[in-house]
Amino acid sequence: MKRAGTLRLLSDLSNFSGAARLRELLAGDPAVRVRCSLDGRHLLLLRPPGAPAPQLLVAVRGPGAELERAWPAGHSSPLDAFFLPWPARPALVLVWESGLVEVWGAGVGPGWRLLQSTELCRGGGARVVAVAAARGRLVWCEERQADAEDRLRSPAAAFSHCVCVRTLEPSGEAGTNLGRTHILLHHCPSFGLVASRKDLFLVPTATTWPGVGHILLIWSPGKGKVIVVAPSLGLSHSKSLNPGRGDTWDFQTLIRGLPGLLTPRQPLTVHTWAPTPQGLLLLNFRGTVSLVQSHGGTRAVGTLQEAPVSLAGSAALGTFHGTLACVLGSTLELLDMGSGQLLERKVLSTDRIHLLEPPTRGGLRLLSALGLFRVGWEAPQGLELPSAEDLVFEEACEYYQRRSLRGAQLTPEELRHSSTFRAPQALASILQGHVSPSTLLTTLRAELRDYQALEQLKAQLVAGDDEEAGWTELAEHEVARLLRTELMGDQLAQLNTIFQALPTAAWGAILRVLQLQPDGNGKLRSQAPPDVWKKVLGGTAAGKEPSNGILPLFELLCQCLCRLEPRWLPPFVELAQQQGGPGWGAGGPGLPLYRRALAVLGEEGTRPEALELELLLGSGRPKAVLQAVGQLVQKEQWERALEAGLALGPSSPLLRSEIFKLLLAEFARHRRLDAHLPLLCRLCPPDLAPAELLLLLRTHLPDELEPPTPFPEPRAEPPLTVGLLRALLEQTGTQGRPSGPVLSLYEDILWDPGTPPPTTHSPTPAHDLCFFFFEED
């Protein structure tokens, strides 16, 4: 039965940030380079050097800010740009011809930020001619001689390039970790670089020396070898090339040692190169498509109905489900990869179309100014998919079998006719139309479609199709499904396993379920219903260790945030503390949430100090806040300690008063708080009387071993004087000044408008003032 190719609209681009600019660049510049992130959420558009601004646009599907950059005239734009498949955050790398590299990242917070900037080329005259990002590595072809005339005349100058590699890995919140430079090939011609999922292809270009223009190389980092291939000769040779062992090759020595490769041949005339999971596709000017496989073999795939006229014409190649898709101008041709037979040919409404990698489960994605489309095959009409009713009994059969203690195997037919299992029969009745609540029916059908799609996704993963994106999607499905269960025993253990294996995908599912969004002030907000938070905050009993190392969901999320974005852990815990109800974990009899989060960070004394302080300060618990302020006092971070007290609202007068007394004691002992006296005055409790203030000061003033002298000893700690104390006394005195008789023996001195008599001796130490005030006691 003949299959029918379909072109389905996935998005009109309105759900992407910067949609208008995105459509403008796609419609206006045929030479724009388009790349897609591994999860499909980010689109990168890079215009060639010399194009009008903006030269770079990164659009995001759903919530998130776009990245738009422009370089003025006289400043070169990037040579190329790539998305990095990092687990912690979306990231992209920009590479200039000069060797400059910028790594940009987007985390939980809004917007993009520059993570790192560095140089690739060591020599001042070197320039980058090609670059690729392959499996956590940055590979580039570097020209060590910049004289264009010599490069065209001299064979020696044509072999003045080298191919280098550096590892590129995420490094926590700080940014990136670039490894040292390792040279793979010395004295080689100019090569273009094309990266597939597992291999890197070094392909000849228009500037490659003609004598080696028929040769390409395949470097497999995972296998530690390089394969030299001459497709027109049908030859391939393999050599060891493992940077970890220090392997490097001189290109000319490598080629001379391989028999038959230097047989005179015409250079490869290739219009378009395209990586696929099977190898490297190449389209020549006769319209023939060939596949260079990862092991070095070459085979013809098929011939297109039309051939590219010149290099100026656009062409794009891709594969899905054993089908080759080629977009040439405004024509889409689908060929069978096995036989080369033309399966379908479609004429499109625009000639500015880009194929996006990697392919999706249903086919290939096509991007144009009109929208994002998917080309795929419709299921044959003779294929019978299981009905929703059948899926109900099959799923119920597996569920009851897991819970059953009997040894006999349960079957779907037994569930259909037995009166013991009534729930699946009731659900099947709803699906058959015997019961007619339309809302419930729609919801149940959506659930069953999700189960069916999940089973299809698992089957594709078993077949090995689109593994990385498939595992990510599977993890998101499983996390969302597990959150709908009771999360006890096996379900919680399975959730722990998913977070350990695929933390980024698992956290992405949590973001959607909890509907977490930053509010722009360093805080998080959530629109999730209370029953979801009840499941998140539930935990083990107080003082009880998790069994077999299986963490409750809240601890699991804290651990995941510590790995991905540590700076967002305190806002997350603070948001969780605002949720809750009786017995939820936020306000129940168990451990407070901040202590559960601290337990994830490790034992006391081994935790990151900054995170521990933020968790204590944001806990809202008086004991924890006082502990944090005490740590700040020990580190002499006076301003932050004062701000922690001032941040407390009017509902915490006792806690503010305790913090004030703690800092007032330090103010009495030494003079390192004098610079922050205005903040200390603001922290002073409004109901504190001057006599009470002086009594507190007297308690903490250092003992006078000798009679006071007019001037302190050299390098001795200056004493607390009345001049310094006056601001605090005025602060207490202005709070509720009596309108009637004076209530205190000494309170009237604070409002004495008179000028004190001149004096020739030193300021009165506050110790003497306190002694004068309290000698009657």
From TrEMBL:
GO terms for cellular component: BLOC-2 complex; lysosomal membrane. GO terms for biological process: lysosome localization; protein localization to membrane. Pfam families: HPS6 (PF15702), HPS6_C (PF20468). Residues 390-761 form the BLOC-2 complex member HPS6 C-terminal domain. It comes from the Eukaryota. Residues 1-375 form the BLOC-2 complex member HPS6 N-terminal domain. This is HPS6 biogenesis of lysosomal organelles complex 2 subunit 3. It comes from Equus asinus asinus. The gene is HPS6.
